[in-house]
Amino acid sequence: MAYGHMIPMFDIAKMFASRGVKATIVTTPANASTFSNAAERNRLLNLDVNVQILQFPAKEVGLPEGCENLDDLDALDTIHTFLKAVNMLQQPLERLLEDYQPDFIVADFTLHWATESAAKFDIPRFVFHGTNIFWQCVEHSLNCNKPFTDITSDTETFVVPDLPDKIEMTISQVPDPFKVETSFTEMVQQIKDSELKSYGVLVNSFYKLESGYADYYRNTMGRRAWQIGPVSLRNNNNIDKAQRGKQSAVDEHYVLNWLDSKEPNSVLYICFGSTSKMNNAQLLEIAKALEDQEFSFVWVLRKTRDIEEKSFLPECFEEKIKGKGLIIREWAPQVLILDHPSIGGFMTHCGWNSILEGVSAGVPLITWPMFADQLYNEILVTQVLKTGIRAGTQKWNLWFETDYVSTKKDEIEKAINQLMGDGEEAKEMRSKARELSELARKAVEEDGSSNTEFTSLLEELRLYNEPST
Fold this sequence. Notes:
The protein has 469 residues and is an alpha/beta fold. The protein has 21 helices and 14 strands.
């Protein structure tokens, strides 16, 4: 239950409905509001996507009423309580499966018990990770080979073996569960076991983006996977793009008019996702860099906890950037913005949705990963796809909030100038980004790889559910 997982899951439900399959989103009361506008629009378009509510046991575990999303958590020590509540949804879901008898179920990878629940009713369970295949291949190699065992320096690089490309990492980029036993070790193992027992994996990616890793995943790791993305490209008009996720904090027409006033490829879009939280000292460094450099920008700012916003924005900041910069507070229509021709770069936390939306729009990236799979995504962008420049921390974090300054003003300015400037490196990245965008769009066309895989999946499921003779 995080927006980076829920939003593409809703797009996948729409994909099934567009092929004549009745799709039901199972979620909790507070999270259901995320889909309300889009669900109503689907009904108007005669797409059979319904929403089924399960009550979330927040009070039973000691969480505040309405705390139903990772975005609501304010400290690391609350995540175990949150996961306890999530696991308590198993029995209500099983009652739902018994009543509805669906043909198959797609469940987020964190719901490891969903495989067991589906098996009780002889229902195929598909895993949805919300990210790419690349990171799973890298983690598989790290787990099997442990190439970091003899590394003692945080800055010394090592090569992750047996992969299609030469992938280099440092020990600080390796997630803690690979190095020491953590409180999440048991859950990680349960997730892996559950995936192996599931029917297969649905992946929001496309074959030509990570073809070598798709082959490795299927042939070397022995996993069944269907790459059916980018699912964001299933939203073909501005209304659909604007209604993905929460209600935007700004009118999309205002944003588009502002972008229309800018030259092509002249605006830097900055957003660090719905969950990642950057400390005020680091935000100040970004603000100072944006104030001093020449490029126009759109910056999505989220509320911070440690001090008031006014204490990190430079004095008269918004006055000084008037005309050059646009600040959007909280939620922005990201796909709509990225698709605008004035956008020339994207500074991102490297969440997979953001990466893939940037790829689909043909926009090169400034990478600033913070936690979870984000460091792997950065490696994919900078070492394999070569459509981005590093700017942020090179240290894996367990939690989605950092308490230190990883990048100073001068380094941020350097990255912006490298990406947005007229140098050969920037031109090459823009060219590669445009090529990937074209491949992404072809993948979801009628004869494209993602569309073909989705058709193949539907046919397999129809055969699976045909009564035996």
